[in-house]
Structures are given as C-alpha cells and as structure tokens.
C-alpha cells in the first residue's frame, strides 16, 4: 500500500526528521526499509561508519564505510550533524545530505542510537520525531540476532549484553513501539509519520491556503 503525502502539494510544510532507535535486532532495519519503499516523501540518512561492511551491505547505500582516519577528518571539518561511538566503532550522520533533503521538502529517516538522538535534539528539537523500538522479549531479541547470522557468536553476545543499556534510554523518546508483529509495526510508524506531518506548526503554507479558501 502506498500512502499519499500529508497534504496538498501546494500547501508547503516543514520537513521533519524521524529517528528510529532500538537495541540491535529489534527490527528497526526491516521497519525502515519498508517505510522507505512505501513512502516517496522520506529519504534515509546514510551514516558514515568505521565498522566493516557485513555480507550484502553496499557502500553508499547502507553506510559510507570509511577508515578511522577519514572519520576523524570529517569530525574535524564539521561534516557531521551528530556522531558517536557505538560498540567499538564510530558512526556519524553527514550534515549536507540532510540539509539538502529537508530543503527539497522531503523528510529524513535516521537509524541512529540514543547518543545521536540526544545530539539532534539539542539542535533541532522542533523538527525531530523520535521512535524507540523494543523487542517483545529478550529471548526473541536473541533469536533474531542469531537468525540474522551475519555476525559471529561473539558479536551477538556483545550486542545482547549492550541491549539492556540501550533500552534504558526508551524514556527519552516521543513514541515507544513494541515490535511483536512486523507488519503492524510498519503501519504504526507510518501512522506516526502521517500524524506528525499534519501538525499545525509544520504546515507553514496553511495560513495562506486558508486565506485563499476564505476568498481573502
Ligand atoms: N549516533 C549514531 N548512531 C548510529 C549511526 N548509524 C548507525 N547508528 C547506530 O549504531 C548501532 C549499530 O548499528 P549497526 O552496526 O548497523 O548494527 P545494528 O545494530 O545491527 O543495526 C545502531 O544502534 C544504529 O542505530 C549514526 O550515524 N549515528
Ligand atoms: Mg541497523
């Protein structure tokens, strides 16, 4: 199913920044992928990372895979909107593509952790909508991490041990989603996005439109 934009194209609105965070394996990537496929008005922010690519990951699409040295140069040059160390690697959101997407009247989707979410919140709270995704149980989280089978047992164990820390930040998010049924979760994130697009403050062209309706 394809969802239409929130309002008429001739009623401009401010773009928003939709953040999805979760512990590894809660289903965030699946939800993001589905959202991007169904909705032409939102684009993914492709992060830079120093972690090596997993099998099947494409440079420039899943991540910009960079060396630690390049990452540090980008930090020094102010090229990141936010950046953080997660597990043993660095991750950061390149600034320019986000600004370009918002300027073009589209929304931006971020798959970032709680540290990055906090940093974005400091600079752009009004444009930020944050969703935290929780697994239905710890056993289910572990099962998903194992069946993904892209990481070694050691990496899975490490991610499990970090899940508790990550989940402790649920309280900092606008929306909390328990992902027990993937289709339902996708529909719910879409519902959040649709509702947020309709917020009055984002509809910067509405006063003019209503004046037109009233013949003024
Ligand atoms: N702060 C921040 N976190 C990021 C960024 N990109 C990815 N992350 C987070 O880093 C964590 C690890 O991501 P990844 O290595 O792809 O493994 P995943 O947990 O299986 O998705 C996830 O929580 C991501 O949301 C970024 O640009 N900034
Ligand atoms: Mg991910």
From TrEMBL:
<protein>
    <recommendedName>
        <fullName>Guanylate kinase</fullName>
        <ecNumber>2.7.4.8</ecNumber>
    </recommendedName>
</protein>
<comment type="similarity">
    <text>Belongs to the guanylate kinase family.</text>
</comment>
<dbReference type="InterPro" id="IPR008145">
    <property type="entry name" value="GK/Ca_channel_bsu"/>
</dbReference>
<feature type="binding site">
    <location>
        <begin position="22"/>
        <end position="29"/>
    </location>
    <ligand>
        <name>ATP</name>
    </ligand>
</feature>
<dbReference type="InterPro" id="IPR017665">
    <property type="entry name" value="Guanylate_kinase"/>
</dbReference>
<dbReference type="InterPro" id="IPR027417">
    <property type="entry name" value="P-loop_NTPase"/>
</dbReference>
<keyword id="KW-0963">Cytoplasm</keyword>
<dbReference type="GO" id="GO:0005829">
    <property type="term" value="C:cytosol"/>
</dbReference>
<dbReference type="GO" id="GO:0004385">
    <property type="term" value="F:GMP kinase activity"/>
</dbReference>
<keyword id="KW-0547">Nucleotide-binding</keyword>
<comment type="function">
    <text>Essential for recycling GMP and indirectly, cGMP.</text>
</comment>
<dbReference type="InterPro" id="IPR008144">
    <property type="entry name" value="Guanylate_kin-like_dom"/>
</dbReference>
<dbReference type="GO" id="GO:0005524">
    <property type="term" value="F:ATP binding"/>
</dbReference>
<keyword id="KW-0067">ATP-binding</keyword>
<dbReference type="Pfam" id="PF00625">
    <property type="entry name" value="Guanylate_kin"/>
</dbReference>
<feature type="domain" description="Guanylate kinase-like">
    <location>
        <begin position="15"/>
        <end position="194"/>
    </location>
</feature>
<keyword id="KW-0808">Transferase</keyword>
<dbReference type="InterPro" id="IPR020590">
    <property type="entry name" value="Guanylate_kinase_CS"/>
</dbReference>
<keyword id="KW-0418">Kinase</keyword>
């Amino acid at each position: 199913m394809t969802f239409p934009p929130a309002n008429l194209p001739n009623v401009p609105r401010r773009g928003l920044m939709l953040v999805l965070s979760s512990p590894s394996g809660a289903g965030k990537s699946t939800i993001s992928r589905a959202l991007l496929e169904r909705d032409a008005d939102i684009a993914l922010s492709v992060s830079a990372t120093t972690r090596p690519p997993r099998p099947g990951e494409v440079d420039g699409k899943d991540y910009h895979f960079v060396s630690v040295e390049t990452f540090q140069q980008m930090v020094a040059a102010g090229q990141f909107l936010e950046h953080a160390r997660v597990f043993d690697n660095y991750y950061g959101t390149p600034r320019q593509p986000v600004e370009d997407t918002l300027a073009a009247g589209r929304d931006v989707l971020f798959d970032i952790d709680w540290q990055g979410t906090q940093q974005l919140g400091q600079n752009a709270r009004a444009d930020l909508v944050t969703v935290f995704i929780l697994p239905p149980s710890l056993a289910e989280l572990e099962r998903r991490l194992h069946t993904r089978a892209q990481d070694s047992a050691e990496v899975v164990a490490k991610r499990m041990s970090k899940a508790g820390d990550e989940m402790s930040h649920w309280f900092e998010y606008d929306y909390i989603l328990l992902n027990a049924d993937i289709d339902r979760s996708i529909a719910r994130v879409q519902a959040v996005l649709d509702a947020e697009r309709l917020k009055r403050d984002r509809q910067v062209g509405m006063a003019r439109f209503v004046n037109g309706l009233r013949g003024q």
